[in-house]
Amino acid sequence: MVHVNQYYLPPTNLIPNSPQPLLHYKGLLSESDLRPENIHNRFHQNGWKTQWIFRYGPTQQSHYHSAVHECMVVLTGTATIRFGVADTDSDLDKNTWSGARENGGVEIDARSGDVFVIPAGVAHKTYDTTPAAPFALLTPGRGRGIQAANVEEALAKVELTGFTMMGAYPENRGDWDFIIGKEDAGRFKAVWSVAKPKKDPVLGDDPDSLVGLWKDTPEFYAKI
């Protein structure tokens, strides 16, 4: 049985979050599993599209995706990821280290082998990364798909340094957007109603994954 940490994050004034739980599969993938080309194949088998590998810098702006769910696999390094709240100041030092953020949310230590399945609408912000390195897109393209004739070959050539994560989104559901808060005020239910994927990005049909843990009945949303 897979051990899954579930986090239910209620809406804030600025962030819709989701009725579906954020899923954290802590240490799910072993070192031998963490070859990007192998993870890509697993994503593809489960109907998810690999779109990027980023090396994260010291911090970033809190954001969410309004129309697509996301999976992030930690390949190398350690960091803290803050989920569920918006930044309330554009200054990254203030919103990361000095409390310029909404109340609530949850902070999770992330390390290689961890997998996060993030419902549409759930805010996230990665910071305090180790080893220290500047932010960079490591895959060919613009971060919305791997632009290469042979994707597996391109992924196998990626040099992983610093804190890196690999991201995927359900196939045929469009690209990710970058929403920082307020933009969806008054239409949170539209974000909450993004269709549930047929399979979990890494666990496929396993009932201990989003397949069994996320609800998809109209009655569920009607109670929100």
UniProtKB/TrEMBL annotation:
SUPFAM superfamilies: RmlC-like cupins
Organism expressing this protein natively: Aspergillus ruber (strain CBS 135680)
PANTHER family: BLR7373 PROTEIN, CUPIN TYPE-2 DOMAIN-CONTAINING PROTEIN
All residue ranges annotated as the Cupin type-1 domain in the record: 63-138
Pfam families: Cupin_1
Full protein name: Cupin type-1 domain-containing protein
